[in-house]
Amino acid sequence: KMRTGWCASQRNAPQLALAAQDAGVQMLTIHGRTRDQGYKGLAEYDTIAHIKSRVDVPVVANGDIDSPQKARDVLSRTGADALMIGRAAQGRPWIFREIQHFLQTGQCLAPPLWAEVRRLLLDHLTEHHSLYGKYTGVRSARKHLAWYVRGWPQAEAFKERINAIEDTQLQIQALQEYLNEMETMGDRVPELQGQTAQAMITT
Question: CB within 10 Å: which end of the chain, N or C, has fewer?
Answer without folding.
Answer: C
